[in-house]
Amino acid sequence: MAVVSTSLTGAGSQLSGHFSGLRKSFLKLDNSNFNSTQSFFQNVDSHLRLSSSRKGCRAVVTMAGSGKFFVGGNWKCNGTKDSISKLVSDLNSATLESDVDVVVAPPFVYLDQVKNSLTDRIEIAAQNCWTGKGGAFTGEISVEQLKDLGCKWVVLGHSERRHIIGETDQFIGTKAAYALSQNLGVIACIGELLEEREAGKTFDVCFQHMKAFADAVPSWDNIVIAYEPVWAIGTGKVATPEQAQEVHVAVRDWLSKNVSAEVASKTRIIYGGSVNGGNCAELAKQEDIDGFLVGGASLKGPEFATIINSATFKKVAA
Ligand code: PGA
């Protein structure tokens, strides 16, 4: 029951009109659908398509998906050789929960330094890659080169690349397909701008981003989805656990309807946008939040470790 009540907190909040930016018809949770508290609970429960009861073997009850908790640190265009060496040493000495996949994405120029000094417990991601094989593409970095340095992942579709650099859905999809074809995992970012949320287009935008990935990729086996509302990135304005959960449920449901129930269950959907050591626990408790993509707070080793270890909030209370 703990799981259901966690989810109901979020869904119930919709009823109050608190999350006015979303297209409420998605979950059909307007008041007219509920004649009693009981029918409300039944209706919400029917939308929790991937309930925890399906995972009897896991010591985890608050994950709708069946994938391992995943935490990525996106260092963006930050750091120097010295500051990165300190960050790596803090990460190497941190105690990290074993049941979590951990990845960091240093700037390209420090990938080799990080790969050579960071514990193997943490995998390395790139923040971008080229659309195909390398060659005469000045300033680009190929997937093959990233693999040569030991990268296992690449972040694609980040809002800073969509909205500052101008990358399109199609361009991002091409990169994702190529990276996957070379066995590089993709952290596929989606998320709406503030004006899109305020215009009630959050789901439309997220689904459009999802479709662009789905149209391009042959398989979802090596993809982690990062829902990152643009208004929450680097602003200190984190989405509430209910706001994040609401979109994660919708994205998982989109996967279920448009790809398959199996992919919807297996694919990690992580949240990004002002996650820090203070707010990660409440976010982690949400059923459809399978981890985090962390920017600013991932530049501080101990705080990043706290965020990684928030996976413990997924576990059954003894
Ligand atoms: P933030 O960045 O944690 O600094 O908001 C998140 C991201 O851009 O991935």
TrEMBL record:
Origin superkingdom: Eukaryota
Residues of the signal peptide: none
GO molecular function: isomerase activity
Metabolic or biological pathway: Carbohydrate biosynthesis
Keywords (A to Z) from UniProt: Isomerase
GO biological process: carbohydrate catabolic process
Pfam families for this protein: TIM (PF00121)
Family classification: Belongs to the triosephosphate isomerase family.
Subunit structure: Homodimer.
Entry-linked NCBIfam families: tim
Protein name: Triosephosphate isomerase
Organism, as annotated: Forsythia ovata
